[in-house]
Amino acid sequence: MKHVRDAAEKDGWIALSVSGSSRNLGDQIVESIEAAKAKYESIEEAPEQDSRITAFRFAGVGLSWTRGDQPAKSVGRQLRELADSARRNGTSVLLTVDELQGMDREQARELAHDLQDIVKLDHLPLGFVGAGLPELQYTLLEDKKITFLQRCHRLRVPPLTVTDAIRGLERPISEFGGDIDRGALRLAAESVGESPYRLQATGHACWNIAGTRRTIETWMVEEAINEADRLMIDNIHLPAWHSLSEQDQVYLGTVAALGGSAEAAEIARRTNLRARRLAESERRLELSQYVERVGNRVLLSGLVPAEVANEETQRVLDYELSDAAAPAPQALGARCGQFMPRAKASCVLRRGHKGGHRSRL
Predict the structure, then answer these.
(1) Per-residue model confidence as pLDDT tens digits over 246-284
(2) Spatial separation of the C-alpha atoms in residues 290 and 299, rounded to whole Å
(3) How many other CB atoms are found less than 10 A from the CB of residue 169?
(4) 321 with 339, same domain?
(5) CA spacing 20 to 30 A to 112: which of 54, 97, 131, 285?
(6) What are phi and psi of 223, to 5 degrees?
């Protein structure tokens, strides 16, 4: 992201930089706007239009007014004013947001709404570049209320190798004056697989567990791997599972129940879905990288591990078994049936009820 910002500024753009993991993204954007105003002297404040009449006398004596208390400007309004000022000065604004995978859903929706209005409706020169771990395509980018981000052009980074993981773990530890045993480093790197998120989670956990110790040892890595497992389940595996339709969950759950690898014919025998629907589910899951097809076999990719899919499937089955075991609702007891001449109807209350008769409940 730094290279993107540097290139934009070199071409004369006004670059704003924030982190998506911030608890208050709006405040960060406002601070970045204020910093840009201080850096670029040509940026003008938009004129304030709000004023309030405080006195008025008829008979030509006069009218007086003072500027009222200005309401705090929204983030969207401040971005719009900055982009408009940039347009008047013949340049553009670039907003870069790093750590997208850590962004709060509500903050993401608000920002996406503002960006869409400024760019699509106001036609102002505001660019957006976001960066995040690949796993966000199964979380933030699946949110149907953030279509602006879904329409952005995506560039994918290749999967991590063990060498990438070793470098990604060792370098920051060394830069901050720490060290890690060779065996511990290898163990941590091999646990990462191809996931940048898991690399980040494992490295962060190692550092926290080590505390004031300068050297990260094997037992610390083992605890860090357990912590990374928990984070992966909570932040990646479960959101990915629950973003699927019921039909696709059935398909994925069937593959998981068969050990994470199954022939297409076996999947068909285990489900009540028609061939066309099975093919549609497989294709959707393959495109979304939940499964991969190797010959006639379908394999789980690891996005939702078999144990997670099995546990979530069992959770649904537990409710279905509870429903089947529940006793049938008791039939309504015998009614009173006393005829009421005035109402020309029989009493609908239970036999032996207290008080007067009623023709309706």
Answers:
(1) 999 999 999 999 999 999 999 999 998 899 999 999 999
(2) 9
(3) 25
(4) no
(5) 285
(6) -65, -40
Q: Which domain holds residue 335?
A: 331-361
Domain annotation covers residue 166 = yes
Question: Smallest Cα–Cα separation from 222: which of 282, 181, 275?
Answer: 181
CA 276-282-284 angle, 5° bins: 105
Same domain, 313 and 280: yes
Residue in 151, 154, 127 with CA at minimum distance from that of residue 17: 127
> What pLDDT, in 10s, does the model give residues 13-44?
999 999 888 888 899 999 999 998 888 765 65
Q: Per the domain annotation, does 15 fall within a domain?
A: yes
Residue 40 and residue 81 in one domain: yes
Question: Pairing mode, if any, of strands 93-98 and 14-19?
Answer: parallel
Alpha helix positions (H), the chain = 2-10, 25-39, 75-88, 105-116, 147-151, 162-175, 182-192, 196-210, 218-232, 238-242, 246-257, 264-270, 275-287, 306-325
Distance of CA 313 to the CA centre of its chain: 23
Q: Are residues 237 and 248 in the same domain?
A: no
**CA-CA-CA-CA torsion for 6, 10, 11, 13, nearest 10 degrees?**
60
Same domain, 289 and 230: no
Cα–Cα dist 180/173, whole Å: 8
Task: Using the predicted structure, report yes or no on whether residue 67 has a pLDDT greater than 50.
Answer: no
Number of domains present in the structure of the chain: 4
- In single-letter form, the type of residue at position 52 comes to R
